[in-house]
Phage repressor protein
Amino acid sequence: MPLTLPHYANREERRPCMSNLALIKSEHFGDIQCDFYRNEQEQICMTTEQLGQALGYEYPKQAISKILDRYPYLREIEFSGVVKLGTPSGVQETRVFTEDGIYEVTFLAKTEKARAFRAWVRKILKALRKGEVVVVSPDKLQELEIKRMNAEARLINARVRQAKLILQSKDGKSLSPVSVELLNINALEVLTDSKINYRPEVEKTYTASDIAKETGISANKIGKIANANGLKTPEYGISVLDKSPYSDKQVPSWRYNEKGRQKLLELLKTKVKER
C-alpha cells in the first residue's frame, strides 16, 4: 500500500525522499512482526511502533518519542520522517525510520533486546540491499497489508478486552476512591498503549498480616479487633483489590494507614494491660 507524506511545517520532514513508500518485506523478530518499506530513492524504512516493539519497550511509541526528544537530530530526513499509513481505524500519520535511523535508535536504546535486534536487522537490511532476500511480489502486497491490519485490529481488540476486565474488577466491590482511580488509569494505559505518569498520592499502608507480624498475633485477630472498634473506615485505611490466596480472582482487601496501625497498637496494649 503506497504511503504519502502529508504537508508539514518542518521542511526536513516533507522532502520527497520519505514519500511513496511501499511494503517490500515482512519478517518476524521473535514474535514481533517487522515490516520493511522502500521509497523511490531505494531507502529502506520501518515504523516507530514496530521498531519500539522489536526493541522490547512496553510502550513503544512513547519510548521512541523520548529518544527523539533527547536526540532531536533523529527527526532529520536522513534518519526519519512522518508519513500517512493505513491502519484498522483509518489512515494515520506515523513516523518511519530509515536504515541509518534504525541503527541510531538501536544504539541509543537501553533495552535487553537492542543488541540482538540490531544484529538481526543488520542481516535483513544487508540482504535486501544485495538482493539476497526475495522481495514481496506485487500480488502479495495486498495480502500482507490485510494481514498486518488484521493483526493490528486483533491487538486493539485484545487491549479493549483487557481494559474491560480491569474496569469490571471493581463492579459490586466497595473500593476506596484512590483504588478506583488507579484501576481507571490502568485501563486507560492498556487502551492507549501509553504510560500515564500521573498517579494519585497514596500514603503508606499496612495489611493485617504486616501488623500481625509486628505484634505477634494472627492476622485474623487483627481483623476482628478492627471490626469491633470500627477501624475499617477511610479515616484508618483503604479498600483495595488483592489476589485471593485461594484462587486467581482479585478480592477486596483492607489496608490500614499509619493512623489505623497506631490505633490497633494502642488497642492491643490496652488489652494486654487489662489481662
Notes: Residues 11-136 form one domain. The chain has a mean pLDDT of 76. The longest helix spans residues 138-168. The chain has three domains: 11-136, 144-200, 208-274.
